[in-house]
Amino acid sequence: MTFANVGTLGTVPGRRDELVAALIQRNELLRTAGCLAYEVGTNPEEPNTVFVVELWESAQAHQSSLALPQVQAAIAAARPLLSGSFGGFRFDVAGSPLRDQETR
Question: Full-prediction pTM beyond 0.85?
Answer without folding.
Answer: yes
